[in-house]
Amino acid sequence: MDGPSDAAADQMERALLSARELIDSTVSLYRRMPDRNPAVVRADDAAAVGNLVDVLFHRTRHSVSLALPGDGECATTTAAALARLRDPRHPSVPVRLLCAPQGLSSPTVALARTLSPRLEVRVGEGDVQEVLIADGRTALVRMDQGADGDRVVVVEDPAAARALDLLFAGVWGGALQPVCHEWMNERLNSEITRRILEHLRDGSTDGVAAREVQVSLRTYRRRVAEIMRELGANSRFQAGVRAVEMGLLPAGG
Questions:
Q1: pLDDT per residue as tens, the chain (253 positions)
Q2: In this structure, what is the dihedral angle of CA atoms 152, 157, 158, 164, given to the nearest 10 degrees?
Q3: Separation of alpha carbons 46 and 134, rounded Å
Q4: Phi (first) and psi of residue 17, to 5 degrees
C-alpha cells in the first residue's frame, strides 16, 4: 500500500525510534526539578521494585501498560507486575504487555498468559525499554545508570507520564497478537525465504541474489514482493530490518 498512510507510518516509526532518548531526557529533567523528588530504587532490588509496583497497582483504576525489554528477559518490574495479576488484593484492571518476539518464550510471560485472562500480549518490533504505565498518569521507568547499575524511577509528572503512554499506544497499535506473529513466523520460515531475507538484509542486487538462491530473476522478484507484503514493509531494506527484529534472521551480515 502506497500513499499518505505509508508516510504517516514512516513518521510514526521515526518517532518511536527516538522513544528511549525522550524517556531518558524526560526523567533526567524531572529529577532535576527542585520541587520533585521521585522515588528511585535499584533495578535488581526485587523487594523495593515490588513495593513500587504494589503502590501503583493499588492506585490504578483503568489499565496498566507494560513494555518488556527487547532481549526478552523478564526483568524485575515486569516480573513483579505479572506476579500481581494473580493477587486478589489488587484491582482487576486490564493489563497490556508489549514484548519483543523473544519475550513470548519467557516462562514468566507464558505462565501469566495461561493464568490471567485480563492480560493481553502483543509482539512488537525492535528494542523496547522496560516501563510500566498506570492509568496514563504514573510510570515506572528502568534507567541505564552504567557502572552503578540500573535504577527504576517513578515518574509522576502528568505530562511526562502522558508522553510515555502515547508512545506506548503508538507501538501497541502496530504490534501483532501472538497467534498472528507465530503464523507469520511459520510462513516466513522456509529455507528459500530465509536466504532471500539474508540478501535483503545485506543489500544484494536482485541479479546476484537470484543466482545465489538458484531461482529465476522473475521468481526472485515475485518472492520478494510476497515477503514484503507479509512483513508489511515499504522497502526491501525495511523487510530485512524487520526480519531481524522478528527473530527470523541474526543481526550480522
A1: 444 344 444 444 444 444 455 455 545 544 444 445 557 777 778 888 888 888 888 888 888 898 887 655 556 788 888 887 776 666 578 889 988 777 777 888 888 888 777 888 888 766 667 889 999 989 988 877 666 678 888 888 888 888 888 888 888 887 878 877 777 777 766 788 888 888 888 888 999 999 998 889 999 999 899 888 888 788 888 888 877 776 677 766 5
A2: -40
A3: 19
A4: -65, -25
Burial class from Cβ neighbours inside 10 Å (0-12, 13-18, 19+) for residue 17 reads exposed
Residue with cell string 506476579: 83
Q: Of all residues in the chain, what percent are helix, strand and coil, respectively (each to 5)?
A: 55, 15, 30
Residue with cell 502522558: 162
